[in-house]
Design a protein that fits this description.
Layout lengths: L10 E7 L3 E3 L9 H11 L3 E5 H6 L8 E5 L11 E3 L2 H7 L7 E4 L1 H7 L5 E7 L7 E2 L8 E9 L9 E8 L1
Parallel strand pairs: 1-6, 1-7, 3-4, 3-6, 4-5
Antiparallel strand pairs: 2-8, 7-10, 9-10
Length: about 170
């Protein structure tokens, strides 16, 4: 029997540097294979909501997920993703999903802070130069639920942490 009392959980998922950089020139700056596996595991089977630039930075829509792209361009169309023009409309397209994910970029995250009740953040403990940024997390509105730290290795050049935030 389904538990109908379960509240919808809108999740923002991101990887950001110590200085909140997400990327540069519409590309990720770092490569953390375990973080990509975690992203896939968490988002599989769910709606993933992203801005147009984030969608265009990927080779194709993410498989086994409902891809929703937000753009201001009224004539923008895609064959492998749903297109809408506001984050509210995107969340409405994902209304059957009890855990849709906002996956980027910077503009979607800034707007998404008003809707999200959970943040899954991979914090890379290094400063980078970039042109897309994760918004500041207001400690009055968010609390850390869990943190898992990983140290750099021969194959991973940076320390990083998985941090789960919940809205207060």
């Amino acid at each position: 029997m389904k538990d109908s009392s379960k509240k919808r959980e809108i999740v923002m998922i991101a990887a950001a540097s110590k200085n909140d950089v997400l990327g540069k020139d519409n590309k990720l700056i770092w490569h953390l294979p375990d973080d990509l596996k975690r992203f896939k595991k968490l988002t599989l089977g769910h709606a993933v909501i992203m801005g147009r630039k984030t969608y265009e930075s990927m080779p194709a829509a993410l498989p086994n997920r409902k891809n929703i792209v937000v753009t201001r361009n009224p004539t923008y169309t895609l064959h492998d993703a749903l297109v809408c023009h506001t984050l509210t409309a995107a969340l409405n397209l994902a209304k059957e999903d009890m855990q849709p994910f906002i996956i980027g970029g910077g503009e979607m995250y800034r707007e998404g802070l008003a809707y999200a009740n959970k943040i899954e953040l991979t914090r890379i403990h290094h400063d980078f130069e970039g042109d897309a940024f994760f918004p500041e997390i207001d400690e009055k509105k968010w609390r850390i639920e869990s943190t898992e730290h990983f140290y750099k290795t021969d194959t991973v050049p940076y320390d990083y942490s998985y941090i789960t935030y919940l809205r207060n």
